[in-house]
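Hey everyone, long-time lurker, first post.

I ran two proteins through the pipeline my lab uses and got sequence/structure pairs for each. Pasting them in order. The first:
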Amino acid sequence: MATRALAGIVLAVGLGTATPAQAQKVTFVRTATVEGREITIDNTKARIAIDVVDEFVDEPEQAQYARRLFRTYEEAYQAAQQQGFEFLPSVSLVAAKGKKFDDGMYAAVELAAERPFGSKLKLGKRELLQRVLQALIDRHGKLSGYPQGACAEAVRYVASALAVGGQLTGFSFPGPPLNPNVGRKPVGFYTWSPELANIFRRDTALQKRLNLDDEQETAAAAVLADVIHGEPELEQERQLLLDLYARLTNPLRSMEVSDMVAEIAAAGGLEKAIGDEAAATAFAEQLRSKHQLGLALLPPSESKEMFLLWEAGAMGISSMEAFIDAIRSGKIDLKPDRDSGWYEYQQYALEPLLKPDKMPEGRKLELSDKYKELLAEAFKSMMAQVRETHVKQLELTEAAAPPLLEVTVFPYLAVEPIASTYLRIGDGYEFLRGVLRNKLGPEALTQLHARDEGAVERPQPLGEELSNLQELMYGAYCLALRDVGAPLKELPSKWSEERAGDAARRSMARAEQWLSAWAQDDDMRRDVRMMIPVARSPDVFWAVIGVKMTKLHVRFVDCPEVRLARGEGEVQPMFGDVDYWVPTERFIEVQGEGEPLNREEFRALCDRAQTEDRIIKALSRRGLSAPQSATTGPGAQGLVAHARRGRVTWAYLVGAAILLFVLVGIAIVVVAKGILGRTRR
């Protein structure tokens, strides 16, 4: 009897039966029809091995395909179709669908927050900042002496930011000339429109913390805090905006206005705290003894990796490799906590790419070292894409027996089987829904629309897009579990045990529908190439230079059970291997001095250079070069990272210095005794 190949003849998806109390033990089976007879393929006892194919003997077309860089996933897919290659949607491909929404959603929130919105924001950020500036100007006229000079410095701080943001009109203010060099060059989606670019420049200028080591800046911070505290409407509006960014991205790093106000009160009031230069110096010393950070009007968000990225750059080694090492070793724990923002939920979703063996689906997979390296490469590019979204806010049968049915079963993968990443992305979107609803009001989900490049509104409101993306991610999660035969033990955050089976069927159908036609999705035609700064002095940049295809060889280690779906009969299965081509975004890191290239500039450079080697050479001509590996470079053993918020690892460095000092001292004593002994003889 003819053998039937079942790599992709999946006609239906079944769920193992379970009572509501057993919903977390739901299992998935595939159903297919061979010669008019229905069979099921149960992977519960199966294990799948995945390896990377990187040698193409007598296969020049495949070798050429593997070397190409594509601008988009859709381009890579069309090339695979032309060659007749089996194309497997990767983790990064599915996540790329969300990336377009992520940028558009953040752009929509940035634009909405500029003006009064819904039941929460009464002023909007633009009017808030302009009113703060006017209040400072008014206060300046009521002060004299040193406090007046401090107020002029506070005016300069706010006015300079509004000026670079194109929002300084109608003001007559005192003090020194404005600083035209504040703020940072817009990158990411902030280049989509002039308004977004101005928001980026203005807000990054106001993320600068007024320095506690500078008495005049400290005095200016005291005046600024006193003015905001004296205007309850301004203080409330500012806190609403800060709470929004703290949950949309991550917790903020700055002295609180309330802390500065308390210190002013303890000093006997503003006039006594900064009444003259000597008083201001003493006040600054008092603040430094109790606080590590100065005050910023619009503070930046911290991240668990921020000090590690800086330390790696300072040592001239790869910050990304150092980050990965810290995650794998447990020095950085990506699991969100009660203070986490959406950014940490997004990071947590990527952790399974670095620890696939420790995920629930890991026991069903046997992954080669080369494939694990490929997953780590996917982590790098996806991490860079996630960070780009937050780039502004982040501190960088009959009785008769039937004939024997022979069938060959191949490992079938609907998506790259790192299930936990899809689950965590979906749960991150649920967290984001709560942030938007609680911080901007329910209107944010029904009235706001994500933006496309050019800041053009997308047709669906944010709430609808969030629901669709969650269905896709949860569906991909269930498909990945089905394909490796893992049970649905961990439920998505918005699913109940009683209705888990129904929710899984619905989400899987939604995901399969999208996966069958993803190449026609406009979002998937997005150019993935980008470059962002992640640390300063030395400057460290992360970049994605395009999409590359990698060939995977997939086989069964432990084979699945294959049986007739109903009736009597016998199935004689044979098992084969299958090759898939999987797309991943190519990540590079460079270090040096200079401004980052925005999307348009970087893509033009990539278009001219075309290949990875030429792109790296083109960047080197701009003074940017690849760092040493974090695991082999000088000082790698001294690189320490941990997940405590806001703590620099200098204690470890000081300890290493003390140990070195002791060792040198011992060596000197030994040498001295030797010399003395020879002298006596």
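...and the second, right after it:
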Amino acid sequence: MRKLAKKTLCLILTVLMAFSVMAFGASALYYDNEYPIVMVGGMRDDLVDAQGNTIYPSDVSLVEQFKSTFAKCTMEMIKAYGSGDWSKYADEFHDMIVPVFAAIQIDGDGVVKDGSHAKWTWTRETLLRKTSNYTMSDYAFEYDWRVSSYDVADVLARYIDDVLYVTGKDKVNLVGRCLGSNIVMCYFEKYGTDKVNTFVSYVGGAEGNAMIGSLLMGNLALDSDHVSAFATSFSNNFGITGDPTLDGMLTAFVSLINQAELLGIGTGFVEEVYENIKYDFMPRTLRDTFASFGTLWDCCAPEYYEQAKDFVFNTPELKAEYAPMLAKADRYNTNIKTHVRELLKEYAKEINIEVVAKYNCDIYPIYEGCEVQGDGLIELERISYGAMTVNMGETLDEKYISQRKELGLDQYISADKIVDASTCLFRDHTWFIRDLEHMNWAESVDNYIVDIIRADGKMTVFSDKNHPQYMQFDHNTGALSPVTDVIPDSEDRWNGDLQSSILMLIFRILKLLPKFFNLIFGKLG
């Protein structure tokens, strides 16, 4: 009887243990690690002066500046064409732009000395005291984005200590969005990873980007196809005039004049004017607006970095004036930017690292190479740390897809055939959001990231059907859904003959005219 009881007890314990293991395996994916989430964003936080008055966003409008100086600039440009002397036109153009950014300038050494600072501040007393169910907004870290990422990292270190103090935890989860990833990387270099459980690089700019690099080198370029595609994409996702009816007519018109090769004449004219003032206007305008901001140099792609410094600081005197700021920028470029992936690979031995990237958004069409796949600001290859992809409007070659299939890696290729994640640094822990621009925030994506964090490193891109590797964003509903198919031909960006474009424009105008007149007369009435 006693033996039977022992056997029965053993059986019961075995069953209980089996169920426990099964239950743990089922619930581990959603395990809440109970660590607070510190969100480190990008260049978006408000700045105030020493008296607390807002200086960014600026109350000086670039549009108003353009309106007020347009006639004078145009006259100087006409004179320059006749005389060949473009210096006065460069002066007028410079003087139009600089006042918009005058209030946020800092000294050449990259240090703020006028008492201006980030509007948001904190104390331990004002921090939220919370012990569970953390969100992305509980501990959003804001900072003065003009100074070096290394300087901000020191402030972040104090903030993390205060968050740990008020929550009673010993670690945090860090989310670095855009420039925030640069700052987190500086934090890791200076303070280590001991106080961090998970790091999420969300559209991270730690490797810099080509657009900023081109800007700092003065290498601006306009391509009519890219301008047309960007105008359509921007209008669809953000709006241009603030009214969908007018936006629809405007983008259709831009598409038409591009098909008629008239837009190319306009962009060619702008490029010609710019080349005449490039070496006079651009370096000093950069110095009088953004070039003293250490973080801007931290965002410069490494392949452009040295040439950009020579272009902006083009005399020995200027190099000496900006030397302290550039020393920190050099440190970031040398210690971090040029080998981010090696560093992340090492950090992944100590903490969980997850990556969230965005794609299929046209990058600002102001430099050569902007046709690459990206999130509107940064190239996808950089923010995903290695994804294989194609230019905007293209899909991966079928031969390439077949080769990946032979290697058993085709499961990493997006259903729209735009991205191959198998080449990423963390291919099983890199997620992609389609059709959501870099600068566009979405609650659904924030919640998606929180789910990844709460899984505490146990979630992969294949482990949960509700969190697949590729998701697409719906601007009408704000919801995410899995990417399931190739983007339809109707979304083609540039192709189509002129007759079709004209017919499409006429159709759209006829369709929109009633709304247009209702809008105009409604505003007049």
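Reply from user beta_strand_b:
Welcome! Quick read of the second one: The CA atoms of residues 104 and 302 lie 26 Å apart. The longest helix spans residues 498-524.
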